[in-house]
Amino acid sequence: EAGVAQSPRYKIIEKRQSVAFWCNPISGHATLYWYQQILGQGPKLLIQFQNNGVVDDSQLPKDRFSAERLKGVDSTLKIQPAKLEDSAVYLCASREGTEYEQFFGPGTRLTVL
Amino acid sequence: GENVEQHPSTLSVQEGDSAVIKCTYSDSASNYFPWYKQELGKRPQLIIDIRSNVGEKKDQRIAVTLNKTAKHFSLHITETQPEDSAVYFCAATASYDKVIFGPGTSLSVIP
Fold this sequence. Notes:
The structure holds 2 protein chains of 2 kinds.
Chain A: E1 5-7, E2 10-13, E3 19-24, E4 31-37, E5 44-50, E6 53-56, E7 65-68, E8 75-79, E9 88-95, E10 103-104, E11 108-112
Parallel strand pairs in A: 2-11
Antiparallel strand pairs in A: 1-3, 3-8, 4-5, 4-9, 5-6, 7-8, 9-10, 9-11
Chain B: E1 4-7, E2 10-14, E3 19-25, E4 32-38, E5 45-51, E6 56-59, E7 62-67, E8 72-77, E9 86-92, E10 100-101, E11 105-110
Parallel strand pairs in B: 2-11
Antiparallel strand pairs in B: 1-3, 3-8, 4-5, 4-9, 6-7, 7-8, 9-10, 9-11
């Protein structure tokens, strides 16, 4: 079974630039999550999708972050404009409907200079 | 809001010794407690989990205990090996979703 895929793996941008991350969850997983993991901290949930609908985006900085999952499969997370404090690893995870376990992708390491 | 605390933040043990990591949670409705292992530069991977209807679960060298009254749970690793070196995260959730992660424990197993 293929795992959660993410791209790019690494991205370096300057502050005020824009960046987008892509995630392809495990086939059949209706629930998709985006997490932000700052160095030395645990993952923090940014947004959760159930199919193509948003379930929870209470911790998403909506003035600069946006995410979509138009067809209920792949998802993109965008930051516009980026700030220095956005430097982190962005993890995508997916979960099957009736199971608790979340499966994580390899993450995208973002460095904002 | 919901919070998960984790101690210690760093832990060094000699190979073969045991390691214990402790977590507390604030949301009394939490009913699922997973533990993730994250090696440097890699994704978090589930190593063991426990649900609120049991007090202890064991899988080979790894065990987790849960005290719902005190709202704390612990990870126990016995006979530690160098490959156990990683960052361990505890987490808690009151549903399938809104998993709250602890800040992590960096475990070093010294050969």
